[in-house]
Design brief:
334 residues, twelve-stranded mixed β-sheet, 16 strands, 19% strand, GH18_Chitinase, signal, Chitinase, GH
């Protein structure tokens, strides 16, 4: 059974790896007829304890099959970007309208499972809404994406240069208007560095704005020290110190509780390889320390269809059973 964490808890940071990416094909952002998805006003304002990422644009994941094989029902769907013209219009991956019928059908499956959907913006590539929208426009774009997904949980994955004040102003409007659960997903720079200066500045901006956030640390794509599982836990400890340097009144327990971790399963972009044993090391650490949530990139890659040792979007690059990582993560309990 998965537990839920209310947005009203103290801020926490979730890091996604730079391995996370969206589809960059030519955009077709024309509105299309779509299945009914629950209105955001009735959606729960919570961040699920376990919500692995799905590249929803690719269409390579059958939510029903994943649930049947693993029991997982909550997912983070990625990525919402500006349209192909670079205007402040929310789209899926810059290629599909925000109410695209194929994406809506996948979301409807999550809803039918009584699962929660977290909407993720940004990622490693593409044109960010956060880069082209003014603050009031950005708040509106965020709301349109949440409404389309029947969600009130937003994951803002920042891996490019943005103006922090614009983002936090938009998020402040969004949270004031609808009580949205907000996660800031940021890269981890290493076992000693923790968060980059840019990511720390974003967190400081969120704190100064009075935002209630969680932090998602992307434990991926940094230099490996010791074994990779231990490297990810050591890096997370450095992130905890960074979080406490921003929210200085947090106890250790509170800092851990507002933090999530997101590894990249299988072959990482910069060389490290996350085997199931490494993921288990990270999950054991997360449970021991009382981290607020866990995710991974991505369900699309959670199979052994390409044990080549190369980075692929639709497979992990290692020898593994189908959904081996999802089966590990679904049992996380804080």
């Amino acid at each position: 059974m998965q537990h839920k964490r209310l947005a009203g808890l103290t801020a926490s940071v979730l890091l996604l790896t730079s391995g996370c990416s969206g589809d960059e094909d030519a955009a077709d952002t024309t509105a299309s007829t779509s299945p009914t998805v629950a209105a955001s006003t009735s959606a729960t304002t919570e961040t699920p304890d376990v919500a692995p990422y799905i590249d929803i644009v690719s269409g390579t994941v059958d939510v029903d099959e994943v649930n049947e094989q693993t029991g997982q029902k909550d997912f983070t769907i990625a990525f919402v970007l500006a349209d192909s013209a670079g205007s402040c219009t929310a789209t899926w991956g810059g290629t599909k309208a925000i109410n695209d019928s194929t994406v809506q059908a996948a979301i409807a499956k999550i809803t039918a499972l009584d699962g929660d959907t977290v909407v993720s913006t940004g990622g490693a590539t593409g044109t960010y809404l956060e880069s082209v929208c003014a603050a009031d426009e950005l708040a509106t774009a965020y709301a349109s994406a949440l409404d389309a997904a029947g969600s009130n949980a937003l994951d803002v994955d920042i891996e490019q240069t943005i103006t922090a004040a614009t983002v936090t102003q938009a998020l402040s409007t969004l949270q004031a208007d609808r009580g949205t659960a907000i996660t800031l997903t940021v890269p981890v720079g290493g076992t000693v560095l923790g968060l980059t200066d840019t990511s720390t500045a974003l967190l400081q901006s969120a704190k100064d704005a009075g935002l209630d956030v969680t932090v998602n640390a992307m434990t991926m794509n940094f230099t490996e020290e010791d074994d990779w599982g231990t490297s990810m836990t050591t890096a997370t400890e450095a992130v905890v110190a960074d979080v406490k340097s921003v929210w200085t009144d947090l106890s250790d327990t509170e800092a851990y509780a507002m933090l999530g971790v997101t590894p990249m399963i299988g072959v990482n972009d910069t060389g490290p390889i996350t085997e199931t044993s490494d993921a288990q090391t990270l999950l054991d650490y997360a449970e021991e320390k009382g981290l607020g949530f866990v995710r991974f990139w991505s369900v699309n890659r959670d199979n052994g269809d390409c044990a080549t040792g190369e980075v692929e979007a639709a497979c992990s690059g290692i020898t593994q059973d189908a959904y081996a990582f999802t089966k590990l993560f679904v049992d996380f309990s804080k």
